[in-house]
Design a protein that fits this description.
alpha/beta; ten-stranded mixed sheet; seven-stranded parallel sheet; 32 helices; 27 strands; 16% strand
């Protein structure tokens, strides 16, 4: 009923719009569709009115039922039952509603049902999640062997100089030990290792099992010395450069050892590395642990979804459990091993990590390292384990009394602050989506800002407000850098209000990029993070871009109208504590609207000129993401192909490659023998190395053209429009060739393409310009100034003499 009414309204509106004369429509269209909320209405109207295959309610319901069956149920039987219910309800729509992707998902869900929680808002599971589900399913379905002789023999590899020594204390529970050793033999690849098992006088079939494992080093005790002393024994005879302490009731996943090893080798200040520990029921045991001021400890995230974003990024922690802990052998021996005052077990790992911190080393949580753990599975009984923990806590407090005074007091509200042992300042970064550099449209710069802020010492949480899909490998790379990336995969937007309610007053700085995000997020931030320093990143002056588009489409307006439109956007800047702008030009414009501090944060680009010279290159290259229609990149490409390329082809035999994310059907339709629409690629360097000329035919835009800076940094000369040349401050004939119209653009391109001397001169000039304008030092200085509240106002761009507001004549 509601959808029918909306369809009727939209049909009437479309009819009325069709009666507006074309001249007026061209003038009104950019402003009308730029109004708040109407972009979404526009997409909805297109879906409802002009979809080639309108979706009927039955089919839509069937698709929802398929989704519920594939993602909502948590067992193999539940998946099949869900589809059976669908077949009973609507057998006629099942085939039409299904898809290849749904079939693939069904196969995966039947093979690996949800033993693990991992459903964070129906996000598409990662490869790691699929592996965890498969392992949990296999462990849950496996039957206990009757005796050790019935098991397949394990043959471990033999290395003379192992990099890692596994140290595994055991006491009975031979079935756990077999599963642990089998997982090591199956999943450890790409490194040299040995396995040292310390048998604490086992009375079951453990001795017989160990005798059947090839190349296993065994230390035997007559009595049960406990985990602590057995671990020290194993470390004493180990030969590896690293020690990996492991409980025998754990199951190691395939990428775990590599992740641990690469982490500890990445920085000499890292003394130990632990990982994500998951219970057999699929819940999280810990994602690093917290030591409170009273000596009690908390496994962060216990019993939560193990793949929730807050447990999926690298960070420094107070300690990690010795059920899986990697450390350097020389460091372990220098620290005296596990302190035997805690024998037989418990608190030895907390104590060792405190010792490492006292020696100037860090303990790191690595989420890519995963084990399945039967907690207390190797203990005599859970009650005894808990009693030992309580007893050893008092010993721990006595030893570390002075240090514990600096630890936070135990409180549920303190967990989010205490999870990061680095006690770094916290910054929330709000943008449209995960800043995948391959998308273009400002995201390469946003990605550099996030990683650079992290390098400056900030603990970063990235919050993609509009499009929260996980975009790998970017999301994974950011998490490995130590950035918390909040994502979801069900198509719905994130709830910033609910997020900040749960994290009230957690963040010291909130950086908001783009005006629509600023308008939506600022009131929420001021309410739930009132003490936070708000930085508005004016990634571009969007009003400037819209006015250029209006002029391009034939719209008439005066200076008064242009200034009013910019003031509408500029009104946001006065509400921020600091502003970052992409250029001094835009910083001065924004400074007229009440910005208290404005800092330039342009592009950070390293010079990396590619080797091929003029003679080894051919053809033209366009790079840019096209995520919306209309958009500056779509217009630029259509303009070039329709008006410039035919003029070029009269004199040159060359083709154009279009590289970058493309969601425009109009651009896709350009694909031909002369125009190759490539789409997104993971590595642009081969394309930069092959092309002879780079084209930037942009007619309306704001901000800074990252694609031009990047092309220039690799030594690829460019032909650009006057708009682009003015944005970067480069001159015609020195750093770029400028084409003021289609004919001049084409003639300049032909000259640059055909003249080796001109090509080499422009290449050299552009490289010098990038080295001058895009230094990393300037980029970091701008970020540091904007996010540090104690800086003097004298450093701000807005203290310079005021400049005139925008003039309509400047849009030409």
């Amino acid at each position: 009923m509601i959808r029918s009414s909306v369809r009727t309204f939209l049909s009437a509106a479309a009819f009325a719009w069709s009666k507006v004369p074309e001249r007026e429509r061209r003038a009104l269209r950019p402003l009308l569709w730029g109004a708040p909320g109407l972009q979404r209405l526009r997409r909805s109207s297109q879906d409802m009115l002009w979809s080639p295959r309108p979706e009927d309610p039955t089919g839509r319901q069937a698709r929802q039922w398929i989704s519920d069956a594939l993602y909502g149920e948590r067992t193999r039987g539940g998946v099949l039952w869900g589809l059976l219910r669908l077949a009973i309800r609507e057998p006629g729509t099942l085939v039409g509603a299904a898809s290849v992707d749904a079939a693939k998902t069904l196969i995966r869900r039947v093979l690996t049902p949800d033993a693990v929680v991992g459903n964070h808002d129906h996000a598409q599971p990662t490869d790691l999640e699929f592996e965890v589900r498969a392992v949990l399913t296999r462990l849950g379905q496996s039957s206990d062997p009757a005796d050790a002789d019935s098991l397949e023999r394990i043959a471990l590899p033999q290395f003379e100089d192992p990099d890692i020594s596994f140290v595994i204390p055991v006491w009975n529970h031979w079935r756990y030990t077999y599963a642990c050793l089998a997982a090591i033999a199956r999943n450890v690849r790409g490194t040299t290792y040995e396995v040292v098992v310390v048998d604490n006088g086992s009375s079951d079939e453990t001795p017989r099992l160990l005798s059947r494992v090839g190349n296993l080093r065994v230390v035997r005790n007559e009595t049960n010395l406990g985990f602590l002393r057995a671990s020290n024994q194993g470390a004493a005879v180990a030969r590896g450069r690293h020690l990996l302490f492991l409980n025998n009731d754990t199951h190691l996943l395939s990428g775990t050892v590599g992740a641990l090893l690469s982490t500890i080798d990445s920085d000499p200040t890292i003394g130990a590395v632990g990982g994500r520990m998951i219970f057999l029921n699929g819940r999280l045991q810990e994602a690093g642990s917290i030591v409170w001021s009273d000596g009690s400890c908390l496994g962060y995230g216990r019993n939560d979804d193990p793949f929730d974003p807050q447990y999926s990024y690298v960070r420094v922690v107070d300690y990690c459990s010795a059920a899986m802990l990697l450390t350097r052998r020389d460091l372990f021996l220098r620290a005296g091993g596990f302190d035997e005052r805690y024998a037989p077990a418990y608190y030895e790992d907390s104590d060792y990590c405190m010792t490492l911190r006292a020696l100037g080393h860090r303990v790191v949580y690595q989420p890519a390292a995963v084990v399945i753990h039967r907690e207390f599975g190797s203990s005599p009984r859970a009650e005894a384990a808990l009693e030992a923990q309580a007893r050893n806590r008092s010993l721990f407090v006595q030893k570390w009394a002075s240090t514990l005074g600096d630890q936070p007091a135990p409180s549920p509200r303190a967990v989010l602050r205490a999870r990061d042992a680095g006690r770094r300042r916290r910054l929330l970064f709000v943008d449209d989506r995960v800043p995948d550099p391959r998308l273009g449209t400002g995201y390469p710069r946003a990605n550099s800002m996030v990683t650079s802020l992290q390098e400056l010492g900030w603990s970063i949480t990235l919050f993609p407000l509009l499009y929260p899909e996980r975009l790998d490998p970017t999301t994974r790379d950011l998490e490995q850098r130590g950035v918390e990336v909040i994502t979801r995969g069900d198509g719905r937007r994130l709830d910033l209000k609910g997020f900040l309610e749960q994290r009230r007053d957690l963040y010291d700085v909130v950086l908001i990029s783009r005006p629509h995000n600023m308008k939506e997020a600022l009131p929420i931030v001021r309410r739930f993070a009132p003490s936070a320093h708000v930085v508005y990143d004016a990634e571009a002056i969007f009003a400037e871009r819209e006015l250029r588009l209006l002029r391009l489409q034939g719209g008439a307006f005066n200076d008064r109208f242009a200034q009013a439109r910019i003031r509408l956007e500029g009104g946001l800047v006065g509400q921020a504590d600091a502003i970052t702008a992409v250029s001094a030009h835009e910083a001065k414009i924004l400074g007229q609207f009440g910005a208290r501090r404005t800092y330039v944060v342009g592009h950070s680009v390293d010079l990396r000129p590619t080797a091929p010279g003029y003679d080894e290159r051919a053809d033209l290259l366009f790079v840019g993401g096209i995520l919306d229609s209309p958009s500056p990149n779509e217009d630029a490409l259509l303009y070039f192909v329709r008006e410039i390329l035919p003029l070029v082809r009269r004199q040159l035999r060359c083709s154009l490659s279009v590289v970058g994310t493309n969601q425009s059907e109009r651009v896709a339709a350009l694909n031909s023998e002369d125009v190759r629409v490539v789409g997104r690629v993971d590595d642009l360097e081969p394309w930069y190395s092959r092309a002879r000329v780079f084209v930037v035919p942009t007619r309306y835009a704001a901000g800074l053209p990252m694609k031009l800076h990047e092309a220039a940094s690799v030594g690829l000369p460019s032909v650009v429009t006057p708009l682009i040349a003015s944005q970067v401050g480069w001159s015609d004939g020195r750093e770029v060739i400028v084409g003021r119209d289609a004919a001049e653009f084409a003639s300049g391109l032909v000259a640059l393409y055909s003249n080796r001397e001109l090509w080499e001169r422009i290449r050299a000039g552009a490289l010098k310009a990038v080295q001058r304008d895009c230094t990393r030092q300037a980029f970091l200085a701008g970020l540091r100034a904007a996010t540090e509240m104690h800086l003097e106002r004298a450093n701000a761009v807005t203290d310079e003499p005021a400049v005139a507001l925008y003039r309509a004549s400047g849009l030409d």
